[in-house]
Design brief:
- The chain contains eleven helices and 26 strands.
- The protein is of the alpha/beta class.
Length: 462
């Protein structure tokens, strides 16, 4: 094997996965990871739960591997080292040692950019008397929030996406008064409205104030001021208005960005610049259903990106097959999940969708723990091919969304769901699983539309 020098910029999900994969594939290679944070390989997704239940989920459990563990495997893991420039022509990077305060250069044969994403800036006026402002992107952020929550009574969360709602739940569990401000008309605006409304009901049931269709214009005098004139008292403000790919370093080196604003990559995770790869939250993916580039800043996607990049940097040949955007999160007693395309996204992709919302019991109705699962299924109006699914409920949501994700990957139709050989026993599922009920309903809708279309064609012929 070659003794190439592999440099990885970023050490959370994609970066550490790529480094570990490359080390296994090519033990002779020199692998260096440059991470500007003090921690590596940690679960950012677990931070809200750590903040809510610090005794049960201590900080150390969020860290998959310590820097020393990587070093023991022969990976030169350098924390608190920030890459400030990439010179692609000379194949060197300029690095700032944040602890020692010195700058140096390193050469590379293969380079991976795994710089992740960064929080979107708050677009509002902030006065000197504004309540403290925090965000949750890193373990250092989680540490800061944990310290600042002491003595806080009123938290205002700006943003009704995954992190915003998870932190709203966390704050309520800690006994805080919580308000969520979302600029769109509904929370989780990437979901279909019917699902968002169920989530909003759950938030209100747990005494979370909602301000939707509202934009923050000012933070002043211990208050959050909205564009409609509403003022919300706050001891602390959490900005969770979204993230954007961290691409400035890549763009300055001549690496091409895609239509989404993230780094454009091939299926091998290579960029337009020779010997430079990109992976994780800074890179695009291909959506399996729409066959279009998308940006999916999700932990599992980052790990899958990193594996492919690591194989190829080490001289192998792996390709990334694409994403469905499968995701799940919790809001109090509800689980909320999605995969594939929602109705609006499918329409925008020119796929002629038909959608329906069905309700079904999660287990046999007479069994303890059986609750209602609500499934919003989207299929192609002519072929019935599955395009996407969104699920909300307090039971069986994860297995339902995973079943549909596998079915979409396998290019099944709504009617095919009826024939799946799924596990049945009253404590776990009804005779017909919720996903099969949804498939039957949408399958009938597609068949009815075909009959109507055939009738219309016949009318035009005579």
């Amino acid at each position: 094997m070659s003794s190439d020098r592999l440099i990885v910029i970023g050490g959370v999900a994609a970066g550490t996965k790529a480094a570990a994969t490359a080390r296994r594939r090519n033990p002779a290679a020199s692998v260096v990871v440059l991470q500007d944070e003090a921690e590596v390989a940690y679960s950012a997704c677990g931070m809200p739960y750590h903040l809510a239940e610090g005794d049960e989920i201590p900080r150390r459990k969020l860290i998959a591997r310590m820097p020393e563990a990587f070093r023991a495997d022969g990976i030169d893991m350098r924390t608190r080292h920030r890459v400030e420039e990439i010179d692609a022509k000379r194949a060197i990077v300029t690095v700032r040692d944040l602890e020692a305060g010195r700058t140096y250069t390193e050469s590379y044969d293969q380079l991976l950019i795994a710089t992740g994403a960064q929080a979107s800036a708050l677009k509002a006026s902030v006065s000197p008397t504004a309540p403290p402002i925090v965000q949750l992107r890193t373990l250092a952020d989680a540490d800061r929030i944990a310290n600042m929550l002491v003595g806080v009574r009123k938290l205002v969360v700006l943003g009704g996406g995954y992190i915003g709602l998870e932190m709203a739940e966390t704050a309520r569990k800690l006994g805080l008064d919580v308000a969520v401000v979302e600029m769109a008309e509904h929370v989780i605006p990437t979901f279909d409205e019917a699902v968002s409304q169920v989530v909003e009901e759950e938030l209100r049931r747990n005494n979370v104030q909602l301000f939707t269709g509202s934009r923050v214009v000012e933070l002043d005098g211990g208050q959050v001021v909205l564009d409609n004139g509403d003022r919300i008292a706050a001891d602390l403000v959490l900005v969770a208005t979204g993230v954007r790919p961290s691409t400035a370093l890549a763009a300055a080196a001549g690496v091409k960005l895609g239509a989404t604003g993230a780094i454009a990559v091939s299926p091998r995770m290579s960029t337009n610049v020779q010997r430079i790869y990109a992976a994780g939250d800074c890179a695009e993916s291909r959506h399996v259903v729409s066959d279009r580039p998308v940006w999916m800043p999700l932990g599992d996607v980052a790990n899958r990106h990193g594996r492919v990049a690591g194989v190829n940097m080490a001289g192998g040949d792996a390709t990334f097959p694409g994403v469905l955007g499968t995701a799940i999160f919790r809001v109090f007693d509800l689980a909320v999940a999605r995969t594939g395309l929602g109705h609006a996204d499918a329409s925008a992709a020119g796929l002629f969708p038909v959608s329906g919302m069905i309700q079904a019991p999660s287990r046999a109705r007479y069994m303890r723990g059986s609750t209602t699962v609500q499934i919003h299924l989207t299929v192609h109006e002519q072929s019935g091919q599955l395009l996407g699914c969104q699920v909300v409920g307090s039971d069986a949501v994860d297995k339902t969304i995973d079943t549909v994700a596998a079915a979409i990957w396998g290019k099944l139709t709504a009617s095919d769901l009826l024939d799946l050989d799924l596990a049945y026993a009253p404590p776990f599922s009804p005779v017909f699983a919720p996903v099969q009920v949804a498939g039957e309903v949408l399958g009938k809708a597609v068949r009815a539309m075909r009959v109507e279309l055939d009738a219309a064609v016949m009318r035009c012929m005579f």
